[in-house]
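=== RUN LOG ===
request id: a7f3
mode: sequence -> structure
chains: 1
length: 56
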Amino acid sequence: MQMTPAKIVLFFTCVLVLMNPPLMLGLLGPEGRRAGLLIDESLGTDNFRIAVFGKR
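=== RESULT ===
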């Protein structure tokens, strides 16, 4: 399997969105931030981030 530049960019974009959905999707506006908060809550990454860094 060849890793083209487009696939590499897509992979890192997906990783960034999964790490902090409200921040990354918030770039798309208030609806994106709201969707990011829903994703964040359903994945449980908000609790993980609070446990690791101590704040939201």
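=== NOTES ===
Residues 20-46 form one domain.
DSSP finds four helices and no strands in the chain.
=== END ===
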